[in-house]
Amino acid sequence: MGFFQELLHKSRMKSPWLIHFDCGSCNGCDIEVLACLTPVYDVERFGVLNIGNPKHADILVVSGTVNPRNAKVLKNIYDQMPEPKAVIAIGACGTSGGVFREAYNVLGGVDKVIPVDVYVPGCPSKPEAIIDGVVLALEKLKVRKPEKDTEPLVADLKKAREFYENREERQVTG
Amino acid sequence: MATIVPFGPQHPVLPEPLHLRLVLEDEIVKEALPTLGYVHRGLETLASIRDMDQMVQIVERVCGICSCIHAHTYCMCIEGLMGIEVPKRADYLRVIWSELHRMHSHLLWLGLLADAFGMESMFMHAWRIRERVMDVLEATAGNRVIISVNKIGGVRRDMSPDQLRWVLQVADELEKELDLIKPVLTNDYSVKKRTVGVGVLTYQQAYELGAAGPQLRGSGVAQDIRMTGYGAYKYIDFAPVVEKDGDSWARTMVRFRELYQSIDIVRQLVSSIPDGELAAKVKGKPMGEIACRSEQPRGELMYYVKATGDKYLDRVRIRTPTFANVPPLLVMLPGCEMADVPIIALSIDPCISCTER
């Protein structure tokens, strides 16, 4: 790997740029993503910037359920992002469809359309969990492999992680 | 020659997927064609597979910003059908939480508007103040955004006397913080340059097109559904905030003055909150038809519920304020400059997830 590539990689790890797309969310997660940028949480001190152009972004933050109409837009934004890239699905809706999973215009979570690297559970996810999700997404970007052969990660505080790991057990016991 | 420029669905100014096709001639907008449906989930049909208690959680997720008011209105409908008398303390608590939601919604909007005309520092300050309200919501209800305090017949949670005192203290601090922002909003040259005379909606237009909420009051129509006295609003004293000009500046000032009004309402409620039960007992199933109205941060919200005495409700219909505010937006846009489109679109405080449900 050349010097220039090494520099790019290092800069990306130090200052990841996000793009946020609301994909049929109830706004709850969107305002929590925005709240991360504001003085109380202030992710800009870690070099995380929220930008509007998918061509400049490293990490795609998606909140909400996917429906046939916005699936095209989501795929379009994902395809426009340069490699390497990571996708974070925010909230219960983004991970599985949440309370809307049985509604007629809902296909399900974000992973129905694009590969997801990090799941952030919660309805809505707390800003702390979203920041943790971005940190986990950076772990993914560190691997430097364009193909997605690794298992997706789940961001949250410790409790949420256990919650996700025991999900099959919970389904059996109801 | 006319050019068509797409605005949205993914746009840095709006966190939500609103899509407008702008027909431009040079820099002037000639026509705006909206495209909706990016956030449509079809949650009204979930009433056929979720019973009436579970629907409270569904309607809260119509919109994350004013979830408490959605649940409140839905509960009013069911309580009206079943003839349930809500305890007075529950009414007070519901309205305290609703007004806290209104405050955080207006501060959020103020930040987004400031961001739209490039005033990053105002965005940061508005959201910093908003975090105080979020702290109150988290401490009293257990979650920051969707607080899930309403249930049919009353509320799930109580506020202790300590918490109520703390709410008053936070209200005082909020007022001080708002006094610090106020001179910037009212005197700053660049704020006025971007908002005064931009997106004018006259009294007649606002009335005829059926605008709602601050949009309507910014054009001089004194209509506030809270004046009908639902919930605990009948026990307190307030008047609708009205501005005459009908431009983006007037709508900004309506919302800014409503922040002070909400603080005042919270003070009145907390100082006179009675003791008593939190929820009435609910027995049986609802039957009949009912429509209830309430005032969201964005305007008039209407719920229509039809029940047949079955386990599931027959029909739940939700009419949200942004749905009423889109036609006025399409009247305001033609004739404006391309650079003013984000400000005019934001000045109606669009909530697309409400509109499309």
Overview features:
heterodimer, A: 174 residues, alpha/beta, Rossmann fold, six-stranded parallel β-sheet, B: 357 residues, alpha+beta, Cytochrome-c3 Hydrogenase, chain B, three-stranded antiparallel β-sheet, 12 helices, 8 strands, 46% helix
Give a description of the structure.
The complex is a heterodimer of chains A (174) and B (357). Chain A has helices spanning 3-14, 28-35, 68-80, 91-96, 127-142, 158-165, 167-173, and strands at 17-22, 49-50, 59-63, 86-90, 118-120, 153-154. Chain A is of the alpha/beta class and 174 residues long. Chain A has a single domain (3-173), classed as 3-Layer(aba) Sandwich (Rossmann fold). The longest helix of chain A has 16 residues, at 127-142. The radius of gyration of chain A is 16 Å and the shape is globular. The model of chain A has no long low-confidence stretch (mean pLDDT 78). By secondary structure, chain B is an alpha+beta fold. Chain B has one domain: Cytochrome-c3 Hydrogenase, chain B (Orthogonal Bundle), CATH 1.10.645.10. Chain B is built from 12 helices and 8 strands. In chain B, the strands form 3 sheets. A 3-stranded antiparallel beta sheet of chain B has the order 1-2-3, with no helix packed on it. Chain B is globular and about 65 Å long. The A-B interface holds A 19-35, 38-40, 51-54, 64-65, 67, 69-70, 73, 77, 98-100, 102-106, 123-124, 126 and B 9-12, 15-17, 37-43, 45-46, 49, 57-58, 61-65, 67, 108, 111, 123-124, 127-128, 130-131, 134, 144-146, 351, 353.
How would you classify the helix and strand content of chain B by structural class? alpha+beta
CATH class category label of chain A: Alpha Beta
Number of helices of chain B: 12
- For the largest beta sheet of chain A, what order do the strands appear in spatially? 2-1-3-4-5-6
Q: How many DSSP-defined strands of chain A?
A: 6
Tell me the helix content of chain A: 40-55%
**Rg value of chain B:** 20 Å
Q: Roughly how many Å apart are the termini of chain A?
A: 51 Å
pLDDT averaged residue by residue of chain A: 78
SSE succession of chain B:
EEEHHHHEEHHHHHEEEHHH
Largest sheet of chain B: 3 strands, antiparallel
